[in-house]
Amino acid sequence: MTIEKRYSLKDLKHLTGTSHAYIYKQIQKGNLAKPEKWGRASRWKESDVNAWLETLDRGLQDNSHLVDSRLTDTQVNINS
């Protein structure tokens, strides 16, 4: 039997480069599972974190055309 790894808030902030406020907003929106409480500490299961990261990655891929068009618009404005 393997024990699933758990992540702290500090770990999540480091993994994603985001703030604690962003992470808790993701929980409120239902995008990230609520953490388990270990005493006063909060810990997220690795499977929940991986699912959330995949969702974030898909969102970035789905919206990459928006970034590309913004870059093109910016480049046009710079050259004008």
Description:
With about 80 residues, the protein is α+β, with helices and mostly antiparallel strands. The protein has a single domain, classed as Multidrug-efflux Transporter Regulator, Chain: A, Domain 2, CATH 1.10.1660. Helix content is about 60%, strand content about 10%. It is globular, with a radius of gyration of 17 Å. The termini are far apart.
Summarize the structure.
The protein is globular, with a radius of gyration of 17 Å. It is built from four helices and three strands, in the order E-H-H-E-E-H-H.
Topology of this structure?
Blueprint lengths: L5 E2 L1 H8 L3 H9 L7 E3 L2 E5 H17 L1 H16 L1
Antiparallel strand pairs: 1-3, 2-3
Protein name: Phage regulatory protein
Organism: [Actinobacillus] rossii
Share of helical residues: 55-70%
CATH topology, which one?
Multidrug-efflux Transporter Regulator, Chain: A, Domain 2
The fraction of residues assigned to DSSP E strands is 5-15%
Number of helices: 4
Mean of residue pLDDT? 82
CATH architecture: Orthogonal Bundle
Termini separation comes to: 64 Å
As residue ranges, the low-confidence spans are 76-80
Gross geometry: globular
What's the total number of strands? 3
List keywords for this structure.
3 strands; Multidrug-efflux Transporter Regulator, Chain: A, Domain 2; 80 residues; three-stranded antiparallel sheet; alpha+beta; 4 helices
